[in-house]
Structures are given as structure tokens and as C-alpha cells.
Amino acid sequence: MCGIAGFFSTSGTTPEDDHRLQSAALALAHRGPDGRASVRLAHAGLVHARLAVIDLEGGDQPMRSGTGRCMIVFNGEIYNYEALRAQLSAGGYPLRTHSDTEVVMGLYETVGVAGFARLRGMYAFALWDGANDTGLLVRDRVGIKPMFFGTDAAGVLRFGSEAKAVLAQQAQTAKLSEGALHLLLNFRYVVAEQSLFDGIQQLAPGTILTWRRDRAFTLQPLPAELFSGLGSLADELADSVRAHLTADVEVGAYLSGGIDSAIVVALARSALGHSLQTFTLEVGDDPAEARNAATSAGLLEVDNAVAGLPAPSAHSLLRLLWHLETPKINALQSSALAGFTRRKVKVTLSGLGGDELFYGYNAHRWMYWASRLHPTAGFRVLGRSSAKILGALSALPNSDPQRAAQIMGSVGCWSRVYGLMRNVWDSPSMRRWLYGPRMLDAKLPDAFDWLDSAWPAGPDPLRAMADFEWRNKMVNDLLWHEDRASMAEGLEVRVPFADARLHAVVRELQAQTPSAAELGKSRLRSVARQWLPDSILNRPKSGFQLDATSFMGREMGAAIDYWLTDECVRRHAMFNPATVRQLRDLSPQRRSRWHSFMLWLMIQVHQWLELFEEGIPVSELAARSEQPGTGSNAANRLRPARAASVSQ
Asked: Is the pLDDT of residue 230 over 90?
């Protein structure tokens, strides 16, 4: 796991590009505490910040191939690299290291991009083919590792593991994409291949970008997986965990009170043949989370360390947003757990993805039963009418009863039903209620139209929901903040449930079985009985999330008082001041959970603008917001823009 950046240039490079590369390396320094290096070629520049996990002595990058033809910067891990290395060596390919990175170049030089189909792992890499003056950007098919890119006014394609590494090469501050922000405020994550930075986008999961000097870049999908002999679900689960243990350093594991992480830990202990260190954060829906995790650790005979969630400071909140590069809810927990874990190990396994793969959320259950309804036209009319009445009677828009009635009125249009279940709210009236002049003047996409265009084809709404979330929520919400929160601490997090072979097996089984039999991870629980006792398997599900309403009242009062004053709201012009005042006056109640989320996101949007558009460093913003009586005095805050930076 590392950070990469660089560029491909038609016109060629100059000594000035060395400074650009150094700026990109500094922007990614947190991702690579074990070393940074860059190289400038005739038409390319490559940057690498290294977290050494495999081939600690010989795996430094940028790395040149044994033939001298290619050079690469690589982020991630290839879990089957030893088998691939043996195949390359048997074929006579010159290998100079024991690194998984060199194997990627060997496959490319021997069979071309078709060789990437053999890679099992998480990765994003940039490869320069000097024989053809061709640059490649490649991202793993699940989207575990990030890759951002943009083309500047001179036609130079710049890329990086984080958007800030692209900005650093351009020596300029960011400009917000209001359209991307609007969709984020609906879905609570950046959707599709967007970013919040105007002119910077993501490479889609499972995609190869090919850049050549004489033409525009092209995009193509990764070659189809070469699965040989897929086994049973139990076998593939065990094999995935075993593969994810590949490392030249100690590997630990996150352990919650639930079954996903317990399965990973049980299988890891079996594969290793000895105990391993596990790490728990005392936070979640279940107040007995830490006690349940400790019980699981005892039953599985592994060591367990527990930490509490520290009270957030102005500096820690701003620092986390700087690393995330986007407003996020429920990233504080991931950040705290990663920082705690990094004190002991460099690499840890996570149970992330189990709910997405095995229909583990309540929303899956709701979608299944909604899809079994056969409503009349009158039923839908009643739902739409009820929604209007409830909206008129409610003190606040988008209440739970109003949204339930909207779902009734939308049954049959499954993308809209899903969106309403996930709190998508877009409408002209909601925009007027929520937004200030800057957003109202911008050309914004319709969130429900976008969702409908991205909704997977097929007759089964539950399967479509799972496929949509695997491609979108999994990538741009869960994996995004797992990557950023962990890499901010120099920790590599691996996700065995997000394995391509395992995904293929599960989807094949789900296609053969009625959906009801899959709800609540019933298939996973059945298989796991060979590894876990009933005392773990029968625990009720608890989420790894904050109680947003109580947390806002308990911990975020100072942030609300600083970032959501009338002056601050009017200066940034993103939100309606009357609405902000209305939300600030809410008492903490579960029925206003969505409204608490919006309050949280409003704070972070204002912070984002000052961090990235205005280019004010984290340390300076934190010091200001902690000064008594400073409020949001515009005279103290306005300043010339400069490159965004962080002080840790």
C-alpha cells in the first residue's frame, strides 16, 4: 500500500517538472512513511510514497523492469504474485527483485494488458512503456484502491492516488464541482467517477486508461477474470483470507462484535497456525460492542486490544477532512481505529464487504418485501397523496413518515424506491429549502434521474440494489473512507470479502436461490458454523456507526457555533441561512437523524471550501476556530488563495 502520482506529457518534460513531482510527493507523504522517490522521463513523471509490506529491501519505486523497457509506480498488493513470479521466471523473464510490483511489468511485457487478468489483489498503478511512449493507468476491478486524474490546459494528463496530488502538480487551489456536491448531499458519498474537484475525476474500477503521445487517451475494461476451478463458498472464503495474509510484515485484524470480522479472524488464525493481534473500537449501535469483541477474541484464542473513540478536536476534524477530500459521515470511527491499530502493526484485515455481499442490511430486507407487493394504481396514488399531506403537516421536510409514503407511491419504479430508502431527497422544493445562491445558480443534475440511469438492468430489484451498491456505495463510500482513514495513519487495510473470486461464487449462488433465503446473511451464517460458535453467530447485528443526533449535540457544539453562523453561511452562499438556523435549533431526536446528517455535512462543506478553494492550512483553520469569540468574522478570514496544505 502506497501513494502514487505523476503525469504524461505530449510536449516533453522540463526541470520545472521536478518541483511539481516533489510537491506531489509531499502531498502523499502520509501514504508512504517508508520512503519517497520520483523520476522524470522524456514524456512522463512518476512519484511514489512507499509503505513497505512486500520485499522490504528490494521493492523501492519507481521501479524499472529487468528489460529496461518499462517503469512503474504501484499502490496495493498482488496476493498471487509468488505464483505469477514463478511462471515468469520459468519462461525466462528477467526478474531482479522479490516484489509483487515487478510481476505486473513482467506480465505486461510478456503478454500485454491481457496479463492483468491474472492479478488477484487490490491495486492502482501507472506504467510507462518507453518502447512505445505509452502510459497506462490501471485500477482493480472492485475499486479498492483509488486513482484520480485530470488533463490541464496544456494537455498534460496528471494523476494521483488522491486528488490533492493532482492539484499539487498544478500549483493551484481547487474549484468545487457544485454538481458533484449536490449528488453527494443526496447519496452522502461522491457518485460514479466524479470528485468534488472540478476538472479531476476518478478512473472507474476495473478500467485501463491508455495514453499515447499522438492521440487522446482511451479507456477499456480490464480483461475478464481468469477463474480456474472455483470452489465452494467455504473454500473460497478460506482461500481469500489466506491470500490476504500475504506479506513480509506482521498482519493483524479488526475485530467487532459481529460475525464478518469474526469469520476473517477465525480463518486467519487457522491459516497462520498461531494467534494474531486484533483491534476493537468501543463504538457502535450495541453498547456491548467491546465486550462482545472481547468474548469473540477469547473464543477464537487471539489477542484483543480495545480503544475508545476520542473526543474530536477542531484540528482532528479538519485533518480528517483534508485526508478524505470529501465530507463524510461515519469516518471518525475508521480514523480512530486505524490510528490505534497502527501503533502495533502495518497491515490489518477487515470484515468490510460482508453485508454488501450477503444482503446483510435492513434495507435489503425492505427492498425484498417491497418488491413482492402487487399494488394497484390506487395504492400508489394514496402513497403520493399521503406524502404531500405529511409534508405539509411536518415542521421539517423529508420526515420518515413522509418518505415512507413516497415509497408507497413509487413501488414498481425500483430505482426511486431504493433512492428514497437511502434518503435521496432531490426536488425543486427541497433545493429551495436547503440551498443558498451559489448552489441555486449552479446547473445541478437530478439525483433521481442519475440513479435511474445507473440502476442495473434485471427483473430482481434486490439483486439490482446489491449490484448498484457494490459498484457505487461500496467503492465511493465504504472503501473510500477505509483507504483514506487508514492511509492517513500509514496503515494498510485489506478486505477479504471484496475478493473477485469470492464475489463470483456468491453471485452464482444467489442466482440459483430465491432471494428470501439470502436475507440477513443467512447463507454466510450457515457456512460459518464450521468456524464460529452459536454464541457469536446468534448475536443481533450492530452497526459500526455513530448516533448522529446525540453526537452532534454532545461533541459538535463548538463546530456548529463557528462554521454555521449566519455570517459564515451567507459568505459561502452554499446553504439557506433560515434552514441552517432551523436545523441548529433542533433537539436531538432519532426522528431528526437525517437532519443531523445534513447539519454535519454543512459544517464539512464550509470546511472543504476553506481548506481546498481558499487553500488555508489545517493548522491555521483549527487555531482560528478554537479562539474564543472569533466566530466567523469575514475580515479575519478572507485571504489570497494558496495551495492547500496540512500541518500534522
From this structure: no
Model pLDDT for residues 381-400, shown as the tens digit of each residue: 788 888 788 777 777 888 88
The two counts, helices (H) then strands (E), for the chain are 31, 17
Q: pLDDT tens, 127-175?
A: 999 999 999 999 999 999 999 999 988 889 999 999 999 999 987 789 9
> How far apart (Å, rounded) are the C-alpha atoms in residues 159 and 137?
8
In the predicted structure, residue 80 carries a pLDDT above the cut 80: yes
pLDDT at residue 375, as a whole number: 79
- Cβ-contact 147, 483 below 8 angstroms: no
Within 351-499, residue ranges assigned H as helices are 354-357, 362-371, 377-393, 400-410, 414-421, 428-434, 437-441, 447-454, 461-471, 473, 480-487
User: To the nearest 10°, the Cα dihedral for 635, 637, 642, 647?
Assistant: 150
Closest CA to 182 of 394, 371, 497, 450: 450
Task: For Cα atoms 206, 210, 212, give the angle at the middle one, nearest 5 degrees.
Answer: 175
For residue 203, which phi and psi values (nearest 5 degrees)?
-75, 130
Q: How far is CA 560 from CA 256, 259, 437, in A?
A: 31, 37, 21
Q: What is the 3-state secondary structure (H, E, C) of 521-543?
A: HHHHHHHHCCCCCHHHHCCCCCC
Nearest-angstrom CA–CA distance, 437 and 10 = 40
Please check whether residue 237 is in contact with residue 263, taking contact to mean a CB–CB distance below 8 angstroms.
Answer: yes
pTM of the model: 0.94
pLDDT of residue 284: 66
Burial 224-252 (b: 16+ CB within 10 A, else e): ebeeeeeeebeebbbbbbbbbbbbeeebb
Structural domains in the chain, CATH included, are: 2-221 (3.60.20.10), 233-359+472-537 (3.40.50.620), 362-465 (no CATH), 548-637 (no CATH)
Cell numbers at residue 164, please?
490533492
CB-based contact 79:246 (threshold 8 Å):
yes
Contacts of 567 (CB under 8 A, 6+ apart): 631, 632, 633, 634
Question: Would you give the distance in Å from CA 328 to the centre of its chain?
Answer: 10
What is the distance between the alpha carbons of residues 264 and 361, in angstroms, rounded to a whole number?
A: 19
Phi, psi torsion values for 375, nearest 5 degrees: -75, 150
Q: What pLDDT is stored for residue 121 in this prediction?
A: 96
Does residue 558 or residue 270 have the better pLDDT? Answer: 270
Half-sphere CA count of 332, side-chain side, radius 13 A: 26
| pLDDT at residue 444 tops 90 | yes
Q: pLDDT-derived band of residue 628, with 50, 70 and 90 as boundaries?
A: low
Residue type, 625: S
Instruction: Classify strands 121-129 and 2-8 as parallel, antiparallel or unpaired.
Output: unpaired
Rounded Cα distance, 609 and 601, in Å:
12
436 CB-near residues (< 8 Å, 6+ apart): 569, 570, 572, 573, 574, 575, 576, 577
Residues 554-606: tens digit of each pLDDT? 778 889 999 999 999 999 999 999 999 999 988 767 777 888 899 999 999 99
Q: Three-class SS string for 253-280? A: EECCCCHHHHHHHHHHHHHHCCCCEEEE
State residue 378's pLDDT score.
Answer: 79
C-beta neighbour count of 14 within 10 angstroms: 10
Say if CB 493 and CB 482 are below 8 A apart. Answer: yes
